[in-house]
Amino acid sequence: MDELFKTTLIFHTAFVGIVLILATVNYFVINGNLSYDVLRKRFKTILPIYYLFIAAVIFTGVILLSVVKFELYHTVIFMIIVWFVIFLTTIKRYKKFKSLKRNDKRRIERFIRFSKRKYLIDIVFILVTMGLVYGLK
Fold first, then answer.
1. How many CB atoms lie within 10 A of CB 10?
2. Contact criterion met (CB below 8 Å) for 16 and 57
3. Over the Cα atoms of the chain, what is R_g?
C-alpha cells in the first residue's frame, strides 16, 4: 500500500503541475484581438487537453483518498472544493463559448475577459492549494 501511495502521489503532483502549466499557457494565449475562427480553433484544441488533466488529477486524488481509507483532512477538503470550482467554471466557460456567434464582437470580448479571469483564478487556486498542502508538511 505504501508503494501505491508514493507512486500515485508522484503522478498526482505531476498532473497538478501540468494543469497549472496549461492554465498559465491558456491565460497568455487568449488575447483580446482574436477572431472568432482562431478563438474557436484554440478552444477546441486546448479544452480536451485541459479536461483530460483535470480528470487525471481527480482520478489520482480518489486513489490517494482510498489508500488513506477516505480520511478527510482539512487540506483534502480544500483540494476537493478547489477542483470542484475549477471544473464548474470550466463547464461554464464551455457553455459561454457555445453561445458565441461569429459576428458578435461584444460577446466575444466578454468571453475573452471571462476566460482570462477564469484562468487567473485557476492559477491562484492551484498555487494556494499547493502552498497549503506542501507548507504544512
1. 11
2. yes
3. 17
CB 11 within 8 A of CB 55: no
Dihedral of CA atoms 87, 91, 93, 94 in degrees, nearest 10, equals 140
Q: Which three cell numbers stand for residue 101?
A: 456567434
> Which amino acid, one-letter code, is at 66?
S
Any idea which residue has 474557436 for its cell? 40
All cell numbers assigned to 56: 487525471
Residue type, position 44, single letter: K
Identify the pLDDT of residue 137.
56
The per-residue pLDDT for range 79-128, each reduced to its tens digit, is 999 989 998 998 898 898 888 888 888 888 888 889 899 999 999 999 99
